[in-house]
Amino acid sequence: MMFEIYFNEIIATIAILIITIIYIIIKKLQKKNNFQLEELIENKDSINDRFDIKKEKVTKIVKEIVLDSDEKKSFENIQEKETLHEEKIEQTIKRVKRPVPNIGKITKENFKLFAGQRILVAEDNIINQKVITGLFTGSGIDITLADDGQFALDILEKDLNYDFILMDVHMPRISGFEASKRIRKNSKYNHIVIISLSGDVATDDVRKMTEAGMEEHLEKPLRMEALYKILYAYSKDTSKQNNTKELEIQSGLNICGDDEEFYFEILNEFVNTYTKSPNAIKTFLNNKKMIEADKYLLDLSGISANIGANNISKIVLDLKMAITTPKDRRYVELFKNYVHSLHILLKEIKTYKS
Predict the structure, then answer these.
(1) CA distance 21 to 241
(2) What is the C-alpha to C-alpha distance for residues 353 and 197, in angstroms, rounded to an integer?
(3) How far is 354 from 350, CA to CA, in rounded Å?
(4) Distance from C-alpha of 209 to C-alpha of 200, rounded to nearest angstrom
(5) What are the residue ranges of helices labelled H in the chain?
(6) Which of 234, 203, 232 is closest to 94 using CA atoms?
(7) Confidence band of 235 (pLDDT split at 50, 70, 90)
(8) This model's pTM is above 0.70
(9) What is the rounded CA–CA span in Å between residue 114 and residue 169?
């Protein structure tokens, strides 16, 4: 009986001990799990923080790349616009055009007003070349022919002293469009007026002519009136020069001792020797034969004074001095003045002798 009482107490004690141990174990496990959970949460926050930092860095880099790309495109667009603007400035050359008066029907005689002007004709068709050459014959206009755009560029490379270019737009090798674009890219040719020649004056063709840097366009077959109006509009006012008397007859007679027959002989010698003097002077200058040019101009000045052409004598002497320093280009204008005055002089000599 006593044993049973103690046995029950022992069992109860053991049970309480087991329960206590289990409780302690459970508490420890809970504490461990809570610690791991807190550590996991902390690690998660740390990972998130690191991810956020990396995400922020990646986002920044991406933004920089995008911005860089946008800025680059923007810069390229600006550069492109500036380039186009520069090309437009080069092609847009300010010209002073004078109004063209209504003078009625235009004939070949009217083109003598432009004596001394130099025109480069870029035309591959032989018949058209002959038509244009015939139109200017006897006008005092200096004509140079080029069979295509490449020849025109080659001529300009050696001699840029032209006032106008009549440019056929459709030519072999280099077209008039391309030749004009190349000319307009070089500022040393800015003084030259480019006039297009085309059998096709459709809107698209006219637009291409303008974009190539051509100031005016003429339709084929060439109309005399249209060409005259363009040359007049872009030429300097020479009305005062046209009224100038180049031949001072009394001065020439005085030098010849009032011997009119002898004076006629000198006038004939001048006409025969110097009618084509502009071509001779131009050849000397283009070939850089300055010694020959100097001697030729000296002789020309002397005989001009002997016949009473004192204005021409002075122009020639000034030209003689100007070619010693060709870089200042004063000789170009003097040469034009000489050609113009010579044309008037030859006309006055013919009138006097008739």
Answers:
(1) 133
(2) 41
(3) 6
(4) 11
(5) 2-91, 126-136, 149-158, 176-184, 203-211, 224-234, 239-242, 249-255, 260-274, 277-286, 290-306, 310-322, 330-353
(6) 234
(7) confident
(8) no
(9) 24
